[in-house]
Amino acid sequence: MHIPYTIEERPDSGLANGKLGIWLFLASEVMLFGALFSTYIILRTGATEWPHGELSVWLGAVNTVLLISSSVTMVLSWAALKVKDFAKSRLYLLATFVLAGIFLVNKYFEYSDHFRRGEGPWHSTFLAIYFTLTGLHGLHILGGMIVMAYFLGPGAGLWKREPEQFTNRIEYTGLYWHFVDLVWIFLFPVLYLL
Amino acid sequence: MADLHVTTPAGAHPTHAPGEHEVHHELGFWQKYVFSQDHKVIGIQYALTGLLFLLFGFGLMMVMRWQLAYPGKPIPLIGAWLGQDRAPMGIMLPEFYNQLGAMHGTIMVFLGVVPLAVGGFGNFVMPLQIGAPDMAFPKVNMMSYWVYFLGGVTMLASFFQRGGAAQSGWTSYPPLADIAPGQTMWLIGMIFLITSSLLGSLNFIVTIVQLRAKGLSYMRLPFFVWAQFVTAFLLLLAFPPLEAAGVLQLMDRLAGTSFFLPSGLVVSGKALPVAGQGNPLLWQHLFWFLAHPEVYVLILPAMGIVAEILANNTRKPLWGYKALVYSVTFLGFMSFIVWAHHMFMTGMGTTMSAFFQTTTMIISIPSVVILTAFLLSLWGASMRFNTPMLFALAFLPMFAIGGLTGLPLGLAPPDIHLHDTYYVIGHFHYVVAPGTIFALFAGVYYWFPKATGRKMNETLGVLHFIGSFICINLVFFPMFMEGLAGMNRRMYDGGAQYAHNAGVLHWNVLQGYASWGLGLFQIFFIINFFMSMKWGTAVDKNPWNATTLEWSAPSPPGHGNFLTEPIVYRGPYEYSVPGAVKDFTPQFEPEKA
């Protein structure tokens, strides 16, 4: 049995199945994070006092740069596949993976600093929403890294059999990765700066 | 068995779908029936699991009905087995009553009706109706079922943990839900179910957009497919906020945060040791942002099923197809901005109430358009009164009662009187039980021949229908009287301590017998279901003389569904076309040259 439009685009929608799928998935992710950002707004407007300067702006800024760079390397990895340069694509994908890894290491230092002072999510409403938002975002980073590791390792064989499908999959991974990046671009000012 | 029913139309010779030979190999038992990626097997898995959960959820209610009819009397038959912490000496504890209430709602909505309506019928029928070989992502489809299954197991297992299952109602309002036992398992179960519905809904939308057969434009889609399409968008976009809310409540319970806990909360005379500054209303907003669209997730697939069966058995085109499509789409959009009509009593303010009252009145318009179009479809028809048609016809007045009794609840002033009474329970059960569940039964009787190659027994079907129809009305209609008298929901003895209930409490006995009777009449269905699988009348491809694409596939369809690539030539409901030889002109029948 053959399912149509897994690789090629359907003429009237202009989309392959996977691309529509990933966009729909991202739409639901927007609703998920949208609900959490709304929670932030409601908690903050209802609070009598809201802490400022609790987080290291410096570390947050470094992480922002890391994620934006990783979005760039992600696109480059896909672009390299488009010109059939598999080795270069792997290199860029690995770079994306490493940048994501450094982001999580930074996050670990930030988290452990809070816990060392005994200020976990239970400490205040601000830290509660901070840990929930960044924790969920961190899980998304981790999920992206697992997907990248798959395409660097066992999933790479698809390139030989179905180069077009492999290229599409890297593109979809990229779309997801840009979304995760975008969420952080909202998180950074909301939690660190405002 | 499949080969028996394959008939070759004269003149045409069966060609195989492209690619069939390359991958044609026999799958083992596990891959074929358990971890199957075939949408039809997954649909049947969903449907059977959903039906079992409906039976279980109904069982919980039959036990609660005993307690309401005879408060404090030992439960017969099963009372002795319930254990000391649920029902010592067979007498139900209030905590256990609360568990049954919370789990009845959760199981019926999230584990029964939605999996049957969307996972079952959607999965089985929709790809066949659009002429697709399968869903767009078969592996994702399989995962969706197994994640749902895990969610179901989690919910069932929660009865056996210390402190029992969740007991804060299916709405799980904090602060109570933040501190009551059993809730953590409920939240974990819900996260499984939300993940499952995300995987499913995404798959549905991609399949409908991408895999429609040649010639099947959007305005030629059967109404059932439209209903599933809108439903999938509701599931995709409304469930994530509940997931967010579930994560926040889990954080409250496990990480000691106070998202939903206000400052200065005192429980049993002791101040709660939390940071406070949370907002319990936030949960209600996030919850109802899902749960109102969820109401339409429950009703839209039912409307889709009824539309198919009405058109088929009136032997007429569905009245106002375009109006139906526009209404169902508009309904989908509007369902995202009516949620706070569940919250008039929270003191959120008159401005908010005015807004949500207005949107609620607006959303009733497309519902009325849909129901009116169905009613007009009956005008002047020479109807076939078979079992699916009886259930579909009963849907119309039952849904009408449910819908009309909802109007007073959508307006803040009468809602002040009716809120949290049995009137509300009567209202939404008329929509969901004799409404949606009747439509689901209609669907089972209607598509059973497609799934098994055999028809269900008519006599048993009619008995099932008449008994269920009488009993279910005796259960739910008195609830309007009870509610108007002020009888509160969620009282484990029905509220005997309140004088204003004195005049209506006796209804509980009748409702009890009616609900047990309703249980007995389901035996006809169960027997019919299993007997017909083996001994039902064997049928050909198109036993109902229907027009939509699923009836061009063999009964049951093999892997890959169609023997030849389906091509669509016309709209979905071309019945009794003037000048035609037969009274139905299927979508798949080529124009005569």
Question: How many β-strands of chain B, per DSSP?
Answer: 2
Shape of chain A: elongated
How much β-strand is present in the residues of chain A? under 5%
Number of helices of chain A: 6
Order of helices and strands of chain B: HHHHHHHEEHHHHHHHHH
Q: What is the percent of helical residues of chain A? A: over 70%
The number of domains of chain A is: 1
Name of the CATH architecture of chain A: Up-down Bundle
Global structural class of chain A: mainly alpha
CATH homologous superfamily of chain A, by name?
Cytochrome c oxidase, subunit III, four-helix bundle
Summarize the model shown:
The complex is a heterodimer of chains A (194) and B (593). Helix content of chain A is 77%, strand content 0%. Chain A is mainly alpha-helical.
Description:
The complex is a heterodimer of chains A (194) and B (593). With 194 residues, chain A is mostly helical. Chain A has one domain: Cytochrome c oxidase, subunit III, four-helix bundle (Four Helix Bundle (Hemerythrin (Met), subunit A)), CATH 1.20.120.80. Chain A contains 6 helices and no strands. In chain A, α4 (125-152) runs antiparallel to α6. Chain A is elongated, with a radius of gyration of 19 Å. A two-stranded antiparallel ribbon of chain B has the order 1-2. Residues 1-23 of chain B have low confidence and may be disordered. In chain B, α3 packs parallel to α6 (183-210) and α9 (321-334) runs antiparallel to α10 (350-377). Classes of the chains: A mainly alpha (194), B mainly alpha (593). The interface between A and B is large, with 39 and 47 residues.
